[in-house]
Amino acid sequence: MGEVLYLVVPCYNEQEVLPETARRLKEKLGDCIGRGWISPESRVLFVDDGSRDNTWRLIEELHGQDSLFSGVKLSRNRGHQNALLAGLMTAKDRCDITISMDADLQDDIGAIDGFLEKRRQGYDIVYGVRSKRETDTFFKRTTAQGFYKVMLALGVEVVDNHADFRLMSARAVEALSQFEEVNLFLRGIVPLVGFPSAIVTYERHERFAGQSKYPLKKMLSFAFDGITSFSVKPIRLITSLGFFIFAASLLALCYLLALKLMGRTVQGWTTLMGSIWLIGGIQLLCLGIIGEYIGKIYKEVKHRPRFIIDTILDQKNS
């Protein structure tokens, strides 16, 4: 008998795509169970992240019709990363392996076969990596590739072109539970877990239905959270910039003193005002970056719960 698999699928206002997602996942799990790759006790665990539509009602209906489907309802919207973590923490004591994926069917369900093959080879973590991003707009594709390059340049250990489509063994999820930070960026945390890991490439599909839950504002916020949560290099760059400006100001002072001693007057109104505005802008920028780090420290020290579960639907463990 194969290992018990829980497919963890965060959902936020996914009523339009959820029936099709459930149909395809049921078909895939049935095929894997028939081949003996996974246990018949395997489940699809939908996590409702405080949806405002009929997402939770659909999950309840799916659960009532078929024990293959389980559900977790959060007390309110906590964001994709927290919802995903809630699902993983719910599943970790109920299964041998988890696979996390989005509900919009952009992740290739067929890649699950490759995940399970890597698992049979002994890997604890298997990352789903996009082989191409042709379904993305030029802007999204360019900014995403730039984000990964910036993260790697800042020394953050991330898997290039990997989102949250991954397999994790029970011991890997247990190790993940030991990371207690509130500012979640799982793409950066999971590589820190260690354990043998592998990569499975797949082609990203277009969203089946509904609208993206990651508009530009959320994408930028997510990217900035990732950078400030895993690298102190921006702070060090501020320090280096401070030294550079200080050295430049000393040189400028020596130059002005030399002109003064030679009796030459300097008009320089434009230069003076430009310098004041430039340095003032740099100072505000630096204070803003430092403030982001202080804000994250403020959130961490309060130790507020990252999610609160309202309801769990799972016939296997009810």
Offer a few descriptive terms:
about 325 residues; alpha/beta; Spore Coat Polysaccharide Biosynthesis Protein SpsA, Chain A; eight-stranded mixed sheet; 10 helices; about 15% strand; elongated
Describe the structure.
With 318 residues, this protein is of the alpha/beta class. It has two domains: 5-215 and 306-313, Spore Coat Polysaccharide Biosynthesis Protein SpsA, Chain A, CATH 3.90.550.10; 233-302. 50% of the residues lie in helices and 16% in strands. The protein has ten helices and eight strands. The protein has helices at residues 18-34, 55-65, 80-91, 111-120, 138-153, 170-176, 186-193, 216-230, 233-261, 269-302; strands spanning 5-11, 43-48, 69-74, 97-100, 125-132, 162-169, 197-203, 309-313. It has an eight-stranded mixed β-sheet with strand order 7-5-6-4-1-2-3-8, with helices on both faces. Helix 1 (18-34) links the parallel strand 1 (5-11) and strand 2 (43-48). Helix 9 (233-261) packs antiparallel against helix 10 (269-302). The model has no long low-confidence stretch (mean pLDDT 79).
Count of β-strands: 8
What is the helix/strand order? EHEHEHEHEHEHHEHHHE
Beta-strand content bin: 15-25%
Count of individual domains: 2
User: Mean of the pLDDT scores?
Assistant: 79
Distance between the termini: 23 Å
Main sheet record: 8 strands, mixed
Strand order of the largest sheet: 7-5-6-4-1-2-3-8
User: So, CATH architecture of the largest domain?
Assistant: Alpha-Beta Complex
User: Share of helix among residues?
Assistant: 40-55%
Within the CATH hierarchy, at the fold level, what is the topology of the largest domain? Spore Coat Polysaccharide Biosynthesis Protein SpsA, Chain A
The secondary structure category is alpha/beta
**Radius of gyration, in angstroms, nearest whole number:** 25 Å
Q: Low-confidence segments, ≥5 residues, pLDDT <50?
A: none
Tally of contiguous helical segments: 10
CATH class of the largest domain: Alpha Beta
CATH superfamily assignment of the largest domain?
Spore Coat Polysaccharide Biosynthesis Protein SpsA, Chain A
Shape: elongated
